[in-house]
Design a protein that fits this description.
By secondary structure, this protein is α/β, with parallel strands linked by helices. The chain folds into 2 domains: about 5-120 and about 305-320, ATPase, nucleotide binding domain (Nucleotidyltransferase, domain 5); about 130-300, 2-Layer Sandwich (Nucleotidyltransferase, domain 5), CATH 3.30.420. It contains 9 helices and 10 strands. It has a 5-stranded mixed β-sheet, with helices on both faces. The longest helix has about 30 residues, at about 235-265. The radius of gyration is 20 Å and the shape is globular.
Length: about 350
């Protein structure tokens, strides 16, 4: 097998068009084109997302190759996001990857987006410490909330997940209730830093040991805000920092409680976080603190690898290529795909 492995990776599962080039597991380029248009609608509009991907994909791939300073003929394989995600968005990336792989006559590698979030921890970085197997990973994003046991690079087992809404959605809906912009998670995190996390109390869901539920919390926050603004129309503006801090405190304590139970149930003390919400400052702070308080070994991804990006798709592509796990060009995108499936 070729010792010089260059993977072009393409990510288009939601509203970010991204392309990256990896050389033997090291990122040479990681280009992301964001779609600002969705902020006007308070959420991602699938039809607009797929149109924007069509506009962005050629320049993004071109830029990724240019930044990596390599030509198309040097590529060993092309990796793309197979799913889960928005079907229209996935089709843009998968069609482009398939066509390019056929034109260059090189292997095509289909990648599970959720596995990619986890394997972002294995991107070759001088400052990045890699976990040993097995380890636990709390995968938290706008579409997923899961505790996954990672047995090997491509062997993952869900221990618990959300029964309804994902944690990222809870952040975004809470921000919408408060009249903040989209995406709401970073805004709540920002205001929470100046607030009192114990100012207001929100009830936590009663579900299974390792299961999550956020729909009740969202409803509780909505009713609380409606009740308080009836009494004082300026309640939100006068107490924004404390409200955000209390919401964040509740969400993070739910996540940490479940992680604690997972560590207790498995005996595994190597714990990682992944996904867009892993950029949150409070979850990072609390997870890091467990190294002192509980003796855990924790792994926190670099900010640039938390949200959707092609570098994480590329690292999965790299490990799949090493094991000969490649696909035929008729491999199709799929909107729903479990982290346990390749």
């Amino acid at each position: 097998m070729n010792s010089e492995i260059y993977i072009l990776a393409i990510e288009s599962s939601c509203d970010d068009t991204s392309a990256a080039v990896l050389h033997n597991g090291k990122v040479l380029s990681n280009v992301v084109a964001n779609q600002k248009i969705h902020s006007e609608y308070g959420g991602v509009v699938p039809e607009l997302a797929s149109r924007a991907h069509q506009q962005n994909i050629v320049p993004v791939v071109h830029q990724a190759l240019q930044k990596a300073n390599i030509g198309k003929k040097q590529l060993t394989a092309i990796a793309f996001t197979k799913g889960p995600g928005l079907m229209g968005s996935l089709l843009v990336g998968s069609s482009f990857a398939r066509s390019m792989a056929q034109a260059l006559d090189i292997p095509l590698i289909a990648v599970n987006h959720m596995q990619a979030h986890v394997l972002a921890h294995f991107i070759e970085e001088e400052t990045q410490q890699k976990p040993d197997f097995p380890f636990l990973c709390l995968t938290i994003s706008g579409g997923h909330t899961q505790i996954v046991k990672i047995n090997d690079y491509l062997d993952m087992e869900i221990l618990g997940e959300t029964l309804d809404d994902a944690v990222g959605e809870a952040y975004d809906k809470s921000a919408k209730i408060l009249g903040l912009g989209y995406p709401g998670g970073p805004l709540i995190d920002k205001y929470a830093r100046e607030g009192n996390p114990k100012a207001y109390t929100f009830s936590k869901p009663r579900v299974g040991e390792l299961e999550f539920s956020f729909s009740g919390l969202k409803t509780g926050i909505l009713y609380f805000i409606q009740r308080e603004t009836e009494k004082n129309p300026h309640f939100i503006t006068e107490n924004l920092n404390d409200i955000c801090a209390s919401i964040q405190h509740t969400i993070v304590s739910i996540l940490m409680d479940k992680l604690e139970k997972a560590v207790k149930a498995t005996g595994i003390k190597q714990v990682a976080i992944a996904g867009g919400v892993s950029a949150n400052s409070e979850i990072r702070k609390q997870l890091k603190a467990t190294e002192t308080t509980k003796g855990w070994i924790t792994f926190i991804p670099k900010f640039e690898y938390t949200t959707d990006n092609a570098a994480m798709i590329g690292i999965v592509g790299y490990y799949k290529y090493l094991t000969g796990n490649i696909n035929t060009t008729d491999t199709k995108a799929t909107a729903r795909l479990s982290v346990e499936k390749e």
